[in-house]
Every structure is written in C-alpha cells, then in structure tokens.
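Narrative of accomplishments. A recurring question from our advisory board has been how the design workflow behaves on a single, concrete structure rather than in aggregate. To address it, we present the structure tokens for one chain from the evaluation set, followed by the sequence designed for it. No filtering or post-editing was applied between the two.
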C-alpha cells in the first residue's frame, strides 16, 4: 500500500511514518516543508528503508502537490501537516490560516484530480484521511464527552483553523464524492514530542532544575492519548474505515494538567535518585493562564471501538513512564532543540493579556 503522509517530520507524523514502514509494511512518501516543529532526526529508524522517501514541499504549493500525486500514485493520503501549537496561534494566527485551511484545500484539490484519473477499482479503494483535533468542539463542563455529532465551537485560532479544514474535507466528500475519512483525536503524548508542549516541556524543565510552568490553577483537563495507540487507530481506519465518516479517538486518559506534571515529577524522583532537584515537584510554578484556555476535553471513542475493535494499549501511567524514560535516554534528540531553537520560553500571551 502506497501512503502519502503530510507533516511526517512532526511529532505524530513521524510516528505514522515509523509504524507504517516498520510495522505495517507500507510504502511511504513523506511530504513536509520542515517548519520549526519538524525534526528529521525523528525519522532515523526509517530513513534508509527502501519503503520510505522524503520530499521537502509545502502543502500550499499546488504544482508540488499535483506532481507528488502523479509520481507516487498513492492508495491513501494521511494528512497531518499543520501548524499545531495553540499558544503560537495566539502569537501569530496567519500561518495557521495558511497551512491548516489553504494547505488542506490545495491538498484536497490535488487529491480530487488524481482520484478522478484512477481506474474504478483503485478509485474505490482510495482514501483521503484528514487528522483533526478534539479542540474543534470547544470546551466541556465537568461532565460528558465529545461525540462525532458534537457541535463545532472552536475557541482558539488553532482550533478555528482546524474546524475550517474539517468542513472543507466534509464538503469534498459530499460535493465531489472524494472518499474521505476524518478523525478528531485528543492530546497526544509520547517520544519525539517537540518541547513546547506540556509533557516534554515539564520533563525538560525539571531535568534542568528550572521552574515548571503550569497555566492558571492547573485544573484544565485533557484526555491523553499515547501517540503509537493513535497511529494504530489511524492505520485501522485507513484500511477499514467507512468513507465519508468521522471518528473520535481518545485515550481514556483524563487528567488535570497539575496531575500530569506531578506524575512527571514523581517518575523523575524515582528514575533519577541522585538528582539535586529532588523532589522535582518543588519546581512546579503556577503562571498566568492561557487566554481563552478551554477547561476540559474528553473524547467518546465508542464508534471506533464498535466498528473496528480498536482499544488503546497504554494506560496514562504506562505511557507516561515510557515517555519520561525515553527523554532520559534520548538526549541526542532533544538537546539540539533545547539549546538552538526552543529552550522553553513562554509563548502565547495575547497582546491584551500581556498589557493587563
Ligand atoms: P507537529 O507540529 O509536531 O508537526 C507538524 C508537521 O507539519 C511539521 O513537521 C511541519 O514541518 C509540517 N508542516 C507545517 N506546515 C507545513 C506545510 N505548509 N507544508 C508541509 N508541511 C508542513 O504536529 P503534530 O502534533 O504531529 O500534529 C499532527 C496533526 O495532528 C496536526 O494536523 C494536528 O492538528 C493534529 N492533532 C495533533 C494533536 C496533538 O496532541 N499533537 C492532537 C489532535 C490533533
């Protein structure tokens, strides 16, 4: 199976490439324009595989996308390329509008042209899989979970740009018949995660003995999903999901941000008994909240379980232990980022909040 992956040098996309090539025997063309969030080092396990190729290209470039479809002749597209960090969408929404909305449009258009050129049996099997987020549904109160039919109520520029992309994907199925699939997943975590996001940021701040920032009171709740569990769900859907449908993916891992950070500190106390920073929880520091910070997300993944029998393999405890251990053992991966491109500075203070 030939799978065109976009954003395959990012966190989830690189896991998609590693598992598709390494575990599922697929042939992958990874298209990525290598923004700050990309790290080609995450692809080391597959970069020499005959089943893997990389092409540096922008998904907003129609000619480059048309050429990729023509030359690679994919059986499926796994579309993950995006600007993905909520805090950066507060600092500069333009890149999110461009890549997440315009880029998805360009890719859909190229996919549609290509799909129309396929013989019927290949056209029947083709899938365009769009990877989206629970954030499009807005914020939950203390009870309930998001279902596939939940209302779209995006609150951040990031969530709004992903919501717009979701609507385009739906329209390309309803209007043109393109066999699309859409998944909305909860917060992923695991190895190879860029350190601007909560879990790797907390690990690296703690390792350096620096204050670990927790927004507000730390009581915002996310439903944590181990990245390899997510990728297995994406593969099941790409091969067996019903075209035109959307599916929610969650990890049954609801935790407050404070519980997450405290869990990391406890693991580091155990794994680094000689650390001068023990107990690491002393480093936890409450900071000004993110503007418009959604209170709680939780996903009902019942449809995916019923139709495809998918269940996450990791609990939050086993997944977090693996993740912390990975950062301790893989300094080669994160040290260049921490010292050269992102060293843990605060992002996403809206102008009004910063002035106030
Ligand atoms: P990431 O930021 O780690 O990686 C994004 C990748 O896309 C990078 O490699 C970047 O270089 C590439 N990219 C950005 N703009 C591009 C462009 N114009 N052309 C080509 N490539 C481009 O993101 P991630 O965390 O791996 O997320 C992947 C997808 O999953 C995104 O669509 C995101 O919205 C979605 N998602 C992520 C999470 C999460 O917890 N990480 C949760 C829900 C949904």
């Amino acid at each position: 199976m030939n799978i065109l992956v976009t954003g395959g040098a990012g966190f989830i996309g690189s896991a998609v490439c590693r598992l598709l090539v390494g575990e599922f025997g697929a042939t992958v063309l990874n298209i990525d324009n290598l923004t700050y969030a990309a790290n080609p080092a995450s692809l080391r396990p597959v970069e020499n595989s005959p089943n893997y190729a990389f092409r540096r290209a922008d998904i907003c470039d129609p000619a480059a996308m048309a050429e990729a479809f023509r030359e690679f002749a994919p059986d499926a597209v796994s579309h993950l390329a995006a600007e993905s960090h909520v805090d950066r969408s507060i600092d500069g929404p333009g890149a999110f509008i461009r890549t997440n909305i315009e880029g998805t449009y360009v890719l859909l258009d190229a996919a549609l042209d290509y799909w129309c050129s396929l013989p019927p049996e290949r056209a029947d099997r083709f899938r365009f899989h769009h990877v989206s987020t629970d954030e499009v549904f807005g914020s939950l109160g203390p009870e309930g979970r998001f279902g596939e039919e939940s209302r779209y109520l995006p609150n951040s520029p990031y969530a709004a740009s992903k919501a717009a992309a979701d609507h385009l994907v739906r329209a390309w199925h309803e209007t043109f018949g393109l066999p699309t699939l859409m998944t909305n997943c909860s917060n992923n975590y695991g190895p190879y995660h860029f350190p601007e996001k909560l879990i790797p940021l907390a690990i690296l701040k703690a390792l350096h003995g620096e204050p670990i920032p927790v927004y507000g009171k730390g009581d915002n709740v996310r439903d944590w999903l181990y990245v390899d569990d997510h990728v297995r769900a994406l593969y099941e859907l790409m091969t067996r999901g019903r075209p035109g449908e959307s599916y929610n993916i969650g990890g049954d891992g609801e935790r407050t941000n404070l519980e997450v950070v405290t869990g990391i500190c406890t693991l580091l106390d155990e794994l680094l008994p000689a650390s001068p920073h023990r107990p690491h929880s002393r480093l936890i520091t409450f900071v000004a909240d993110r503007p418009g910070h959604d209170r709680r997300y939780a996903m009902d993944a019942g449809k995916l379980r019923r139709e495809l029998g998918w269940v996450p393999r990791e609990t939050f405890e086993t997944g977090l232990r693996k993740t912390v251990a990975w950062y301790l053992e893989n300094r080669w991966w994160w040290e260049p980022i921490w010292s050269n491109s992102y060293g843990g500075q605060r992002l996403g203070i809206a102008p009004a909040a910063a002035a106030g």
